[in-house]
Specification:
The complex is a heterodimer. By secondary structure, chain A is of the alpha+beta class. Chain A has helices at residues 4-14, 38-47, 109-119, 213-217, 226-230, 237-252, 258-286, 290-311, 331-356, 359-365, 373-378, 383-388, 395-398, 419-443, 494-505, 514-521, 525-529; strands spanning 19-21, 28-32, 53-62, 69-78, 84-92, 97-99, 122-124, 172-177, 189-195, 199-205, 320-321, 324-325, 462-468, 473-480, 486-492. In chain A, the strands form five sheets. Chain A has a five-stranded mixed sheet with strand order 1-2-5-4-3, with helices on one face. A three-stranded antiparallel sheet of chain A has the order 8-9-10. In chain A, helix 7 (258-286) runs antiparallel to helix 14 and helix 14 packs parallel to helix 16 (514-521). Classes of the chains: A alpha+beta, B alpha/beta. The interface between A and B is large, with 58 and 51 residues.
């Protein structure tokens, strides 16, 4: 706490116009800020050497029917103490304009465009106001997250064209790719401007898979929405389910039993294992090294079959519930898991040795797709990608959840920021996960696996929760509505933050290397598009 | 090199090491069987994702790993719809993907099969009714075979595809 109080005092002294509110969750502060001061305060938080606030989340909320206002919320994570600072402001009446913070903070770019699309609030001074979520064929004035927009309405179509940024000059041409790609992957559009071989610019156009998840959440109750959270991004089932449940538990003041917290950790680590194994294989496959791909595919399948035997779902679906977990794993089964993983570990080490002994593979991986540390910081990149670029952040250590406060862990960190570094981070995390599961087996206590939820929260209560999924930081903001329903649920997959950063890792590389870079980021389209 | 040989000898053959599908086989109507017979027991598939949560894609990818190894049954993944005999569509069709799906369908040469993979593709699953979803796959293009599940496990998919492969009118 000693570190945290000064931050509040410093802000209060520097900006006397702001008002401090009660914090929404542990290790956080909340300030109500006048709208005009937003750029100044956010800039101050972002650049002050003893704060170095990273813009973690930015969301809007339509408060109707309780109040006829829109709320804007800015969440910053302070670099040193990992303390959360929430700045909020309200827009009343017919006011639809708010000052953009993008000119100072790159990371706000997509958030502000998203708010404009979903709420019709306009960030003044934003350098790029093209549509993001609503593609150009959506009719004018459709802002899905406004309360007067019905969740099941049928959208019409209008004529419209997306304007890409062009580079003009002799020998410069554009290569459009997507939305449907050549492999078994999700839809997204990439547009490369190339001069000869090297890429000069890459522009993304996403949100093809927008399914209206945030609006669907508003149709559900707090307790029942877990399956929907699990389907935000299928490969991060546990991560999203857990982040959602934690938010609801904070709202309900519900304590999770210790055994359940350990089991949640186990599921999260199993999910990390099978995804990382698959990724390592896929990166090798993109350099046409199918031997490693086959071995990693085999090991990944082994973990997924283990999941299936353990829980009846290859993706660990339906295991997390509000208040705990749905199914107990007997201690005898835990021993089996550890046995299986102990066999897998030398197996994986052997494959790793074969991979890194391959000179032509290393030649493709090294210095390909470098994301520099300062670029990563500017875009608030996190997760595997951030750790490969020297950003030392991991929520499991920094803001422990589930049982991570009792299971100390090491964070894999590399500084080169190239494809190889991202491969190495994944490899190290596999070993670390296996170690964690082993430690977990030794420490797991006996006891109940779930507590029943009690009282409903009062409407308007809201909270935040964060989980380190296998891709990175998953954030949920849940605001309660009438009768235990959800008023607003903001979902943030790490992909949403890391996608814009890929545009800075690509220039200078050649097009055949792009699939490799993309695979080493391996971001979710579904979690991004919502 | 010795490492690789040693590794390969140690691992041996892993193909087929999975528990068999437990869902009942999917009935295939005679018209579809007629179409399948034209493909002479091989099938080139183009996978189109129209808004799934990406679990179905992961299971389709798993089909190609050494455990399931769908290639041994003559099932290939084609890189372009123009090389495909069948389109495998996953996910509810979102507003933004509707046109792309129809385009991909148009570009697939006749005779073609359309396989709706997963609950979302069959009936929109959890996303039913959302403003951003225009309906299940069959609302936009004719569907021949439906493989249910959320997501269907690779053994189920393989079972259904093998059924097609052996299908005779």
């Amino acid at each position: 706490m000693t570190e945290e109080r000064p931050c509040d005092d410093v802000l209060n002294i520097a900006f006397p116009a702001i008002r401090q509110n009660t914090p929404v969750c542990a290790k956080s502060s909340h300030f109500v800020v006048p709208k005009d001061l937003l750029p100044a305060i956010t800039h101050y938080l972002h650049t002050q050497p003893n704060f170095r606030g990273r813009l973690t989340l930015l969301w809007a909320c339509d408060h109707r029917p309780v109040r006829t206002t829109y709320g804007l919320y800015y969440l910053f994570t302070l670099e040193g103490s990992h303390h959360w600072v929430v700045l909020s402001t309200e827009m009343t009446g017919t006011d639809r304009l708010f000052p953009s913070i993008t000119p100072h903070i790159h990371a706000a770019q997509w958030y502000e465009r998203e708010i404009r699309d979903m709420f019709g609030l306009i960030p003044q001074g934003h350098p790029d106001l093209r549509r993001l979520v609503r593609h150009e064929h959506w009719p004018k004035g459709t802002h899905p997250l406004r309360k007067d927009f019905s969740w099941d309405c049928r959208l019409g179509r209008q004529q419209g064209e997306h304007h890409f940024r062009h580079i003009e000059g002799e020998g410069v041409f554009e290569v459009p790719v997507g939305p449907i790609h050549a492999g078994i992957i999700e839809p997204g559009h990439f547009r490369f401007s190339v001069a000869g071989e090297p890429i000069m610019q890459l522009e993304l156009r996403h949100f093809w898979k927008h399914r209206g998840i945030e609006k669907l959440f508003e149709q559900q109750t707090l307790i029942d929405a877990v399956p929907l959270a699990e389907r935000v991004s299928g490969d991060t089932t546990v991560g999203h389910g857990l982040a959602y449940c934690q938010a609801v538990e904070t709202l309900l003041h519900l304590e999770v039993p210790r055994r359940a917290r350990y089991l949640r950790t186990l599921f999260l680590e199993l999910e990390r294992l099978h995804n990382h194994l698959g990724d390592i294989g896929a990166i090798c496959n993109d350099t046409a090294y199918s031997l490693a791909h086959a071995h990693c595919g085999r090991m990944k399948e082994r973990i997924m079959q283990l999941n299936d035997r353990l829980t009846g779902s290859r993706f660990l679906r339906g295991m997390i519930r509000v208040g705990g977990v749905t199914r107990d794993i007997e201690n005898r089964r835990l021993v089996d898991i550890v046995d299986e993983l102990s066999q897998l570990q030398p197996d994986f080490s052997e494959v790793g040795a074969i991979i890194f002994a391959n000179a032509s593979l290393t030649d493709r991986l090294e210095t390909t797709g470098i994301l520099h540390e300062h670029t990563a910081w500017d875009h608030a990149v996190m997760g595997v990608v951030g750790r490969a670029s020297g950003r030392d952040c991991d929520l499991r250590r920094d803001r422990p959840f589930a049982a991570y406060d009792e299971l100390p862990m090491n964070v894999a960190l590399y500084r080169y920021g190239d494809v190889r570094a991202r491969l190495r981070v994944r490899g190290d995390e596999i070993h670390e996960s296996i170690r964690l599961i082993r430690e977990l087996r030794d420490k797991i206590p006996d006891g109940p696996i779930a507590h029943e939820p009690g009282d409903l929260p009062s409407p308007g209560d809201w909270t935040l929760s964060a989980v380190e999924g296998w891709r990175g930081e998953i954030l949920y903001m849940v605001m309660a509505g009438e009768g235990g329903r959800i008023h607003r649920c903001k979902v943030r997959d790490p992909s949403f933050v890391n996608w814009p950063a890929i545009q800075w890792a690509v220039p200078g590389n050649i097009i055949p290397d792009f699939p490799l870079i993309n695979k080493s980021f391996n971001l979710s389209y579904a979690g991004n598009d919502l | 090199m010795f490492r690789i040989i040693k590794k390969s000898l140690k691992i041996g053959v892993v193909t087929g090491q999975y528990s068999r599908a437990n869902t009942p086989t999917i009935p295939i109507v005679p018209e579809v069987k007629e179409k399948v017979a034209l493909f002479k027991r091989s099938l080139a598939i183009r996978e189109v994702d129209t808004g799934s949560c990406n679990a179905c894609e992961m299971e389709m990818n798993a089909l190609m790993n050494p455990i399931y190894d769908a290639e041994r049954f003559g099932i290939h993944i084609a890189a372009s719809p123009r090389h495909a005999d069948a389109l495998v569509v996953t996910g509810p069709v979102t507003v933004n993907m509707e046109r792309a799906l129809k385009d991909a369908h148009k570009q697939t040469p006749d005779p073609k099969l359309v396989i709706a993979l997963g609950d979302c593709a069959i009936n929109c699953g959890m996303f039913k009714g959302s403003y951003a979803v225009t309906g299940p796959v069959e609302r936009h293009i004719p569907v021949d075979i439906r493989i249910p599940g959320c997501p269907p496990c690779p053994a189920d998919i393989l079972e259904a595809l093998s059924e097609l492969r052996t299908g005779r009118p």
